[in-house]
Amino acid sequence: MKKQYFVQHPDPSILNDFSLPKDIFQSVEVGIRDMEPDFLFTLAQNMFAFPVFFALDFVMLEHVEKIIMERNMPFYRFDSDGFIVKIDSVDILAVICESTVELASNGMRIFIFFGEGLSEADLVPTKKWGGPTEFRNLDFGKVETFIDVQEVGLTVFTKNEKYNTPRKVTHCISEDYALDLMSSDLES
Question: What is the pTM assigned to this prediction?
Answer without folding.
Answer: 0.92
